[in-house]
């Protein structure tokens, strides 16, 4: 497929103050459209709103998927992507779950590289910052019947983002949610499907109202096993062993999660992927057997947990501080992402020479 490039005539002012997350967008975006059974009309064009008929499927039935990854630039001007192919492979898995046709992974990878290079002056270089990359696919058949759309728009937008933690890595507080659930087996929780996130908002607001930062999600059937934290995967250090919930069908298979597992195993630290009962965790926190908890995801990379609220009680984890496993994972993974450390796993794609 051909890739057209239409350059923006008027470039925006680059931001000078705090970036925050996902509030500022660059001058260009990548767009392609699916129609008559094929993807086409691929172009990099000026960033602009879409004009959509009010009847399009995505507005009514949330037939939409997305991804999230980052580009990093260091002081030498080198640009790196972290495992971007895995994002587009996962996007095709998500698409399959809700009847969205697959994309050509090699083609969109090339398009992404061209887009990021065109926008390279937007990539921040300060510690902890990056250019966040958001690919999405939305269903745009202007028809109200509940069936898979015949038309789609794939787009990639870019947003310079600040350090996730403004004051260094601050441990977060989690509220164990026993009423609302994020995902059930057989549902869409294993995939980055847009509707999952609307379904999670209520519990997120409840956790914040109770003085916590994120939700600790339990399984939908028995409310017995820990699944994820907010929109991150979760790890525990229990009796000196690193443990993470097994991917049982309602857990998002995070790229950061699998990178942490690979990293730990390369250092001889075994990671147990298994069912983790919330009772085991809470008793472990009380007895001192659970010495660390942390979340993993593209946005924060590693998010240490300092407090857990369970019913009426609040428990402190790791003295409210960041533990040694979380610190090591954060240092090594961000080091590989930014090029401060060598990349023995071949995770990084350097672009632009
Ligand atoms: C995106 C996401 C993650 C983390 O995945 P990464 O590939 O590591 O960014 C975890 N859980 C949920 C629900 C997610 O949406």
Topology:
Blueprint: E1 4-5, E2 28-35, E3 38-46, H1 57-61, E4 64-66, E5 69-73, E6 79-82, H2 84-97, H3 105-118, E7 130-139, E8 152-161, E9 172-177, H4 195-209, E10 214-218, E11 226-229, E12 233-238, E13 241-245, H5 255-266, E14 271-274, H6 278-287, E15 290-297, E16 301-310, E17 313-316, H7 324-338, E18 348-351
Parallel strand pairs: 1-3, 9-10, 9-16, 13-14
Antiparallel strand pairs: 2-3, 2-8, 4-7, 5-6, 5-7, 6-18, 7-8, 10-11, 12-13, 12-15, 15-16, 16-17
Helix pairs in contact: 2-3
The structure holds pyridoxal-5'-phosphate.
Folded structure, characterized:
It is a single chain. The protein has 353 residues and is α+β, with helices and mostly antiparallel strands. The chain has 7 helices and 18 strands. The strands form 2 sheets. Strands 1, 2, 3, 4, 5, 6, 7, 8 and 18 form a 9-stranded mixed beta sheet that branches. Strands 9, 10, 11, 12, 13, 14, 15, 16 and 17 form a 9-stranded mixed beta sheet that branches. α2 packs across α3 (105-118). The longest helix is centred in the middle third of the chain and has 15 residues, at 195-209. It is globular, with a radius of gyration of 21 Å. The model has no long low-confidence stretch (mean pLDDT 96). The protein binds pyridoxal-5'-phosphate (PLP). The site of pyridoxal-5'-phosphate has 14 residues, from α5 and β15.
């Amino acid at each position: 497929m051909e890739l057209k490039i239409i350059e923006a005539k008027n470039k925006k002012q680059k931001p000078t103050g705090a970036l925050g997350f996902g509030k500022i967008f660059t001058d260009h975006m990548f767009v392609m459209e699916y129609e008559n059974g094929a993807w086409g009309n691929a172009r990099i064009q000026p960033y602009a709103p879409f004009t959509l008929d009010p009847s399009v499927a995505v507005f009514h039935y949330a037939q939409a998927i997305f991804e999230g990854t980052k580009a990093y630039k260091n002081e030498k001007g080198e640009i790196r992507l972290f495992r971007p192919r895995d994002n587009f492979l996962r996007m095709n898995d998500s698409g399959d779950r809700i009847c969205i046709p697959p994309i050509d992974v090699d083609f969109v990878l090339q398009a992404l590289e061209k887009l990021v290079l065109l926008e390279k002056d937007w990539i921040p270089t300060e510690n902890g910052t990056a250019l966040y990359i958001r690919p999405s696919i939305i269903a745009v058949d202007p028809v109200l019947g509940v069936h898979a759309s015949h038309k789609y728009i794939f787009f990639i937008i870019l947003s310079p983002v600040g350090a996730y933690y403004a004051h260094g890595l601050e441990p977060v507080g989690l509220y164990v949610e026993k009423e609302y659930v994020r995902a059930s087996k057989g549902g869409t929780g294993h995939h980055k499907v847009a509707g999952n996130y609307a379904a999670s908002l209520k519990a997120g607001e409840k956790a914040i109202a109770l003085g916590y930062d994120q939700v600790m999600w339990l399984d939908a059937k028995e409310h017995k096993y820990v699944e994820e934290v907010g929109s991150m995967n979760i790890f525990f250090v229990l009796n000196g062993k690193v443990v993470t919930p097994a991917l049982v069908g309602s857990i998002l298979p995070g790229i950061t999660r699998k990178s942490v597992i690979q990293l730990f195993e390369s250092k001889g630290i075994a990671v147990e992927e298994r069912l983790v009962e919330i009772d085991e965790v809470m008793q472990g926190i009380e007895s001192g057997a659970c010495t660390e908890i942390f979340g993993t995801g593209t946005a924060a990379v590693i998010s240490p947990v300092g407090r857990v609220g369970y019913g009426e009680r609040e428990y402190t984890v790791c003295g409210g501080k960041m533990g040694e496993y979380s610190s090591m994972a954060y240092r090594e993974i961000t080091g590989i992402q930014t090029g401060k450390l060598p990349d023995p796993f071949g995770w990084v794609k350097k672009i632009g020479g």
